[in-house]
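pasting LD-carboxypeptidase for the record, 302 residues
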Amino acid sequence: MIQNPSFLSENDLILVISPSGVVDEDVVTKGAAILKNAGFQVEISPNAFNPHFKFGAKHQERLSDLQFALDNKEAKAIYCARGGFGITHIIDSLDWTQFKKNPKWIIGFSDITALLHNAFQNGYYSLHASVLQGLPKLSTEYQKHLIDTLSGDIKALKAESSFHKSGSANGQLIGGNLSLLIHQIGTQTELDYSNKILFIEEVAEPLYHIDRMMLQLKRAGKLKGLAGLVVGLFTNLSEDKSIYGQSVEEIILDHCKDYDFPIGFNFPFGHGEDNVPLVHGAEVGFEVEGKEAYLKYLIDNT
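structre below
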């Protein structure tokens, strides 16, 4: 049974952590100011601005901050300052006992995908959304979308594409960054994809890597039991169709051709100027017909 933590109200506390890559303190501070202007309290963890080479801090320091945030009795949300790389160094050492007594929203994407999966395994929704360092770079529209979602105003999504594969399905929405999905296979944070609606996004990969990762999902049996596939943004790719012979859409459709689940492309989430929040683990309805696709939440927004 997957549950949603309480939605946030004015003056609720958000803790900021840097569990993965090194952050830009000035930009994170600007992101925190956006949350404060929305009426929330914000506290920065002790090691959030304590960089250690490529990482936000030393492994033990990042683990300490994340464990403190999970255990905190007052906070209503944990906002990851950045993705990058590093969460999987510490994720298997987490203790979720106190979190279950005081559940809170975990917010982030990209490398934070693994942490969202861990929250799901422990029975809770989380928020696949811009990391705090990315929040100031989003338009005010997308910033508001995040604030609204945290406050319980969860909106349906629509996407248009000529590559859609028609169909309809209901199921739990899981997924995240495609590379991180691959890296969870065979680990403690690997999820069961059966009857799930999977969402994926990626950044800065050559097309042959996309091909390889989709093939890995297929060979690992992750595609055959899906209820649906929601495809977000694939940005800053280092190859195009003229080099590889297939586009991202064609690669995905090719690997999914043996299955009858609906596929929707071009949803506005991922590493780009558009990054709408997705409630990871929530029950959704997925409808794809012609060039239009809709993702509607089936959870209580109150």
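The chain has two domains: 13-150, 157-297.
The two ends are 18 Å apart (CA to CA).
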